[in-house]
């Protein structure tokens, strides 16, 4: 298949063991995405958008739609490639949320410095983390198997919160709420009327009744809860 051009979708760089797990989760959640991998055999019988090419080449990333992607998941096998792909991605799209896999603990800080928002180490843990961060279950209020707070690797949490009449969130745009600067968290998804929204733009308006998924470090999530989640 060709590359996607719609704004607000996700791009997955790498379709190895971790990448395939992420792809399966995205397909289940019915989220638009494009995958980049240099091995054409990884796309046999693929029923989603993909680009065959090196994920560390700017032209390939542009073809995959990186400049318009809301979220980029980097699951390449070599940390040097992860760092380079992160650096290029951040340059092409300063506003995107970049979630990257680190194959070695020693590379975590370097990948963060290259521009990643969240980094998970080790393939298995990274696959679990990336799958959870994009899973429909995170936003499904009927899902009883998931805790309200989902503990992820390296102290990263996801807080699921139903928006009420509070003046802090309801009927405000993402840019005016400015969670990242106020408490260090990022809204990565919204469940509204049974539909999952991953196209989180600065102009996106948060409505009463929305279920928002917010990701951040342990302390940042605590700040979010203290400020926005009212205890009954």
Walk me through what this model shows.
- With 232 residues, the protein is α/β, with parallel strands linked by helices.
- The chain is 30% helix and 25% strand.
- The protein contains eight helices and 13 strands.
- The strands form three sheets. The protein has a six-stranded parallel sheet with strand order 3-2-1-4-5-6, sandwiched between helices.
- α3 packs parallel to α4 (108-114).
- Residues 1-7 and 136-154 have low confidence and may be disordered.
What's the SSE blueprint?
Elements: E1 10-13, H1 17-28, E2 33-37, E3 49-52, H2 58-63, E4 71-74, H3 79-92, E5 97-102, H4 108-114, E6 118-121, H5 123-134, E7 149-151, E8 156-162, E9 172-173, H6 174-177, H7 179-182, E10 186-192, E11 195-197, E12 205-206, E13 211-217, H8 218-228
Parallel strand pairs: 1-2, 1-4, 2-3, 4-5, 5-6
Antiparallel strand pairs: 7-8, 8-13, 9-12, 10-11, 10-13
Helix pairs in contact: 1-5, 3-4
Query: What quaternary form is this?
Result: single chain
Label the structural class: alpha/beta
Give the strand tally.
13
Overall mean pLDDT stands at 78
Overall outline: globular
Key structural traits:
six-stranded parallel β-sheet, five-stranded antiparallel β-sheet, 232 residues, disordered N terminus, alpha/beta
Task: Compose a concise summary of this entry.
With 232 residues, the protein is an alpha/beta fold.
């Amino acid at each position: 298949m060709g590359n996607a051009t719609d704004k607000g979708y996700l791009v997955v760089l790498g379709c190895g063991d971790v990448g395939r797990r992420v792809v399966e989760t995205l397909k289940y959640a019915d989220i638009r995405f494009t995958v980049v991998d240099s091995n054409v055999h990884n796309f046999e019988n693929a029923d989603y958008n993909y680009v065959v090419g090196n994920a560390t080449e700017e032209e390939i990333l542009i073809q995959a739609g990186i400049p318009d992607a809301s979220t980029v998941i980097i699951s390449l096998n070599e940390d040097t490639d992860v760092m380079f792909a992160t650096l290029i991605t951040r340059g092409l799209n300063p506003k995107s949320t970049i979630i990257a896999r680190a194959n070695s603990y020693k590379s975590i800080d370097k990948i963060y410095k290259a521009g990643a928002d969240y980094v998970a180490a080790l393939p298995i843990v990274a696959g679990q983390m990336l799958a959870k961060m994009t899973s429909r279950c995170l936003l499904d209020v009927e899902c009883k198997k998931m805790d309200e707070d989902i503990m992820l690797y390296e102290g990263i949490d996801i807080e699921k919160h139903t928006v009420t009449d509070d003046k802090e969130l309801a009927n405000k745009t993402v840019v005016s709420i400015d969670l990242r600067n106020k408490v260090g968290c990022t809204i990565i998804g919204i469940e509204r009327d049974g539909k999952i929204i991953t196209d989180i733009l600065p102009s996106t308006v948060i409505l009463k009744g929305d279920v928002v998924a917010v990701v951040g470090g342990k302390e940042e999530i605590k700040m979010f809860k203290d400020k926005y989640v009212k205890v009954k």
